[in-house]
């Protein structure tokens, strides 16, 4: 399985690249990469111009530039899928440090019969914590060329499996996977969560994957 980290945002609320904001000395993007490395054969970092963002992993990594610059996360999804060596890819935003590895693994496991597997929480769809297949490439390109830039516009064009809230909660009771860092207040909250949960005492690579295990076996 390929994993794609979307890191092409302008980070306008921070004033500089939010992927490099840190939680106790570890960058947001490194938290995400450490989680994804547990079950990925490769990790692709999709950035606006192909600029490299400091992070590391034991898994093969590469950086790609948006094929359609300035067209938001849908362009990042397209660029990452186009560069992927696998038919299916996990897609996560670089600003989601507490994404549950258990949840992503579950979505990956149920993905073969679908083009997209995506959580939906209280009618809110979460397209930047999802699994996409390469079958999405042609419809995404069509949308981008028409300047239809919402990832949700894709879902009426492909086979979608929605992960409902009760499924999601089995892996992540507090829904911390969906805590994305858009402001300094979000960052401060994330730091408080990491301290409260005691994740900072665990080894690199363990924190994001183990912190949301389901209560029951699937």
Description:
With 218 residues, the protein is an alpha/beta fold. It has one domain (2-210): Spore Coat Polysaccharide Biosynthesis Protein SpsA, Chain A. It contains 7 helices and 10 strands. It has helices at 28-36, 72-83, 101-109, 137-145, 165-171, 184-197, 207-210; strands spanning 2-6, 22-23, 26-27, 42-47, 60-65, 88-93, 116-121, 124-125, 129-133, 160-163. Strands 1, 4, 5, 6, 7, 8, 9 and 10 form an 8-stranded mixed beta sheet that branches. It has a two-stranded antiparallel ribbon with strand order 2-3. A hairpin with a 2-residue loop joins strand 2 and strand 3. The protein is globular, with a radius of gyration of 16 Å. The relative contact order is 0.17.
Give start-end ranges of low-pLDDT stretches: 202-218
Total separate domains: 1
CATH superfamily: Spore Coat Polysaccharide Biosynthesis Protein SpsA, Chain A
Helix and strand content put the structural class at: alpha/beta
Largest sheet: 8 strands, mixed
Q: Would you state the CATH class?
A: Alpha Beta
CA(first)-CA(last) distance = 20 Å
The name of the CATH architecture is: Alpha-Beta Complex
Concise summary:
This protein starts with a strand and ends in an 8-residue tail after the last helix. It is α/β, with parallel strands linked by helices.
